[in-house]
């Protein structure tokens, strides 16, 4: 079992930054960790993923160059640094744990464990 808890969401103006954290139980270190987001009325969408050792990352085109995913296994935490935020980034953001490599882990179905989500709202 892997337990995941997201934090760091909030309200920010367009062009601003936020850093999300995904705190995990000790067993998470062997898993790929992904970030997804879900806006009202839309399906959950892939944002970024990072391999168990941090050597490999993969991003959705919509966030490439603006968001950075990283992990600190000593702290059992994965981060999502979000810069140049846009109103269309508004969503509930979820982290999840899976076993596929990041470039293959862009589907919701590839993940086994999920957090409860944190709200990110970007005002125009």
Task: Describe the structure in your own words.
There is one protein chain. The protein has 124 residues and is mainly beta. 0% of the residues lie in helices and 49% in strands. The protein contains no helices and 11 strands. The protein has strands at 4-7, 10-13, 18-24, 32-38, 45-50, 57-59, 67-72, 77-82, 91-98, 111-114, 118-123. Strands 2, 4, 5, 6, 9, 10 and 11 form a 7-stranded mixed sheet that branches. A 4-stranded antiparallel sheet has the order 1-3-8-7, with no helix packed on it. A hairpin with a 6-residue loop joins strand 5 (45-50) and strand 6. It is globular. The N and C termini lie far apart (40 Å). The mean pLDDT is 95.
- Alpha-beta content class: mainly beta
Please provide the count of β strands. Answer: 11
Query: Which regions have little confidence, pLDDT < 50, spanning 5+ residues?
Result: none
Shape: globular
Question: How many separate helices?
Answer: 0
Largest sheet: 7 strands, mixed
Q: Please state the average pLDDT score.
A: 95
Q: How helical, in percent, are the residues? A: under 10%
**Euclidean distance between termini CA atoms:** 40 Å
Oligomer: single chain
Give me the strand/helix succession: EEEEEEEEEEE
Give the C-alpha Rg: 13 Å
Estimated share of beta-strand residues: over 45%
């Amino acid at each position: 079992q892997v337990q995941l808890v997201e934090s760091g969401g909030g309200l920010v103006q367009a062009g601003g930054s936020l850093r999300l954290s995904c705190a995990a139980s000790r067993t998470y270190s062997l898993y790929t960790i992904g970030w997804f987001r879900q806006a009202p009325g839309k399906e959950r969408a892939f944002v970024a993923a990072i391999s168990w050792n941090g050597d490999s990352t993969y991003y959705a085109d919509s966030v490439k160059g603006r968001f950075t995913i990283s992990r600190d296994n000593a702290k059992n935490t994965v981060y999502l640094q979000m810069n140049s935020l846009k109103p269309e980034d508004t969503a509930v953001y979820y982290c999840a744990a899976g076993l596929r490599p990041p470039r293959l882990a862009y589907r919701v179905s590839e993940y086994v464990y999920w957090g409860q989500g944190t709200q990110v709202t970007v005002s125009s």
